[in-house]
């Protein structure tokens, strides 16, 4: 028999906790979260009220339905409890970063800036030249989660689509900067912005009319050197650091 709730006394003793949902068919952790009380059981309880075909169904809910259809129950693991309020986001983020293929929609707290990195990336991040000055240009900063260092043109293809961005503000920008974990790795110019649909971008893999993409090119060598240098430049201006939003505007 599976547990669906904790008693009030258990909830009180647990305090803040971080938990994992595990698929019993293969032992795979498919969701990580944080909470108090009976939060850990809320996902399965919510799944019981949703059919797998409903629009609200997420990858997490679909996984729970699949597990139940196989005659099994989701395994609930309290990974760490009694976590102080000021540490709960960091503990959750570390756990999210530790498991690949999760159904979490959002990444861990500050994962873009302080998440898993190769030792070489750590050296680069903290031993690179800094952008510690206010630029004279109007800039759009775009967080890029997966960066393949294979040339400026290839990075342009990674950065150009598709974003939930205000095209009116984006069109005011002099340059677009590609940012990976707080480091500027590319600079680009946009000629035009359009809805991210095949009408404008036949090669796009995931069309979305609510998102936008741009047509442009890598910036000049002078601008590239200014903002990227040889291997990237770390953003050291406080107001532009440690922000998880995919899009940031600077001087716009």
Describe this structure as you would to a colleague:
This protein is of the alpha+beta class and 252 residues long. Helix content is 28%, strand content 27%. It contains nine helices and ten strands. The strands form two sheets. Strands 4, 5, 6, 7, 8, 9 and 10 form a seven-stranded mixed sheet that branches. A three-stranded antiparallel sheet has the order 2-1-3. The longest helix has 11 residues, at 59-69. The radius of gyration is 22 Å and the shape is globular. The model is unreliable at 52-57 (pLDDT under 50).
How many helices does DSSP assign?
Answer: 9
Radius of gyration: 22 Å
* Series of H and E elements: HEEHHEHHHEEHHEEEHEE
Number of strands: 10
- Poorly predicted segments: 52-57
* Overall form: globular
State the share of residues found in helices, binned by percent: 25-40%
Compact summary:
The protein is α+β, with helices and mostly antiparallel strands and 252 residues long. Helices cover 28% and strands 27% of the residues. It has nine helices and ten strands.
Question: Any descriptors?
Answer:
252 residues, alpha+beta, seven-stranded mixed beta sheet, three-stranded antiparallel beta sheet, 10 strands, 28% helix, globular
């Amino acid at each position: 028999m599976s547990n669906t709730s904790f008693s009030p006394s258990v909830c009180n003793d647990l305090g803040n906790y971080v938990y994992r949902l595990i698929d019993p068919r293969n032992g795979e952790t498919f969701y990580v979260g944080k909470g108090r009380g009976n939060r850990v059981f809320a996902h399965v309880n919510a799944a019981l009220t949703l059919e797998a075909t409903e629009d609200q169904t997420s990858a997490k809910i679909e996984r729970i339905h699949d597990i139940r259809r196989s005659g099994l129950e989701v395994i609930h693991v309290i990974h760490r409890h009694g976590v102080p309020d000021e540490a709960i986001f960091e503990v959750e983020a570390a756990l999210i970063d530790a498991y690949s293929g999760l159904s979490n929609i959002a990444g861990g707290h500050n994962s873009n800036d302080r998440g898993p990195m190769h030792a070489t990336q750590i050296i680069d991040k903290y031993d690179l030249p800094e952008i510690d000055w206010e630029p004279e240009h109007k800039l759009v900063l775009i967080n890029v989660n997966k960066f393949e260092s294979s040339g400026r043109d290839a990075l342009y293809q990674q950065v150009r689509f598709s974003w939930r961005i205000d095209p009116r503000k984006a069109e005011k920008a002099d340059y677009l900067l590609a940012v990976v974990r707080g480091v500027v790795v590319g600079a680009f110019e946009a000629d035009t912005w359009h809805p991210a649909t095949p009408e404008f971008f036949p090669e796009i893999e995931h069309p979305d009319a609510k998102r936008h993409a741009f047509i442009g090119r890598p910036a000049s060598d002078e601008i590239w050197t200014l903002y990227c240098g040889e291997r990237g430049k770390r953003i050291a201006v406080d107001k532009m650091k440690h922000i998880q939003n995919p899009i940031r505007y600077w001087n716009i």
